[in-house]
Design brief:
Layout (H helix, E strand, L loop, with lengths): L2 H25 L2 H21 L27
Amino acid sequence: MGLKKAMQVLWACAAVTLLLLVLFLRFETTVLLALLLGAGCVTAVIWVVFIRCPHCGAHLGRDVGKYCPHCGKETGL
C-alpha cells in the first residue's frame, strides 16, 4: 500500500473510531466497546506499519509532510 493510500485509510479508520467512541459514550454497550477497541487497534497498526517513508523506510511519526524528516526526499503526499 502506498503512503497516500495508507493516509486515506488511516483517516477513515480514525473517523470510524471517533464515531464508535461517541456511540459508546451514549449507549455504553459491550458490543460498542469491543468494536471501539478493535477499530482503535486497526488504526494504530496502520499507523505503525504503513506510515513510512517510501525511500528510506523510516517511520514518519506525527510529522507526515511533503518531505521525509529522516532522508529529506519527497514522500509523495
